[in-house]
Amino acid sequence: MSVATEVERLIVEEIAVGRAIDSVAHDEDLLASDILDSLGIMELVAFLEEKHGIKVSDSDLTPENFQTVDSIVAFVDRKKG
Amino acid sequence: MIGKLRRHLRERGARATAAKFAQRVGDGYVREELIALLKDLDSIVEPRVEGDLRLEDLETGHLPGISELNRKQGTPSADRYFANCLADGIHGFVAIRGEEIVGYYHWVDRDNSTMHPDLWYMGPEFQLEEDDVYGSGLFLLEGHRGGGTASDFLFKVETSLRERGYRRLWGYVLSTNRPARWLYSNRGYEPMWSVLSRRLVFLRWREVIPDPNQ
Predict the structure, then answer these.
(1) Verdict on whether the full-model pTM lies above 0.90
(2) Which among B148, B150, B178 has the least Cβ separation from residue A42?
């Protein structure tokens, strides 16, 4: 499963559960729609650290890195080097 | 405390007493980094989804509801703090969902800033200007978090303060509180400086670090 699909599934099935969201476009702004709120970002970070073995530092927690599914995928790719 | 130490010394000996004393001192030592934040109240972004929280000014009539909230979060002793805030003229908002108080927020302006104990954390030189307001203590009861609720609460707080004529909202966040840092960052709060705060029992030190990103 690709990182994009993993992240989309996490958002739909865990982070935004109960919000009647069936899918997330990979270029959808997750911040403007409040899908990735202050609790959601922690859930996502924990998932990425555990699943992909990366370390997300305080300075990584920027809107640019987590704005869309695409930007999250790019961030994970950069961290994996 | 002196009596307890003497008894411990008599019953357990000098070495055990010294170890116990060192442990107590260690338990009382707190080191934390705070990041001072500034929000421009002329650029408030409305959340895409309007939440169902209702905002009201904190007043005496809310104290029973606040007391209920404090009991739910396991801090009944906080009741006195809210009563003291009202007595000291510290303003506040309560967040209401349905008929239940589910959150709160405190704020002061230049006229009553000396009454707010948290202002100590902003650094020794910090002073509010005429159009400034200082907010602190944003809290939402567990079970009422997620889904953008905190963002909705903060949006309504910012809007209400702007409507009262304030232009700049100051505050701080603990550097270790990542969810809160994310929330404030996404609502346009700019990190201004950091304060390294150390506390040993009743003694307090603070050190201002100009760039919080260093």
Answers:
(1) no
(2) B178
Contacts of B117-122 with CB under 8 Å at 24 or more apart are B118/B172, B120/B204, B120/B206, B121/B34, B121/B172, B121/B195, B121/B197, B121/B206, B122/B36, B122/B170, B122/B172, B122/B195
Task: Return per-residue pLDDT of chain B as tens, 214 residues.
Answer: 666 667 777 777 777 777 766 666 656 677 788 999 999 999 998 887 778 999 999 999 999 999 999 999 898 888 998 998 899 889 999 999 999 999 999 999 998 877 777 787 787 778 899 999 999 989 999 889 888 899 999 999 999 999 999 999 999 999 999 999 999 998 999 999 998 887 766 677 777 777 655 4
Task: Residue B175: list chain A partners with CB under 8 A.
Answer: 58
Out of B151, B175, B180, the one facing A34 most closely (by C-beta) is: B151
Q: What domains are defined for chain A?
A: 3-80 (1.10.1200.10)
| Residues of chain A contacting B187 with CB distance shorter than 8 Å | none
Q: ipTM of the predicted structure?
A: 0.78
Establish if B92 belongs to a structural domain: yes
Residues B213, A59: C-beta atoms closer than 8 Å: yes
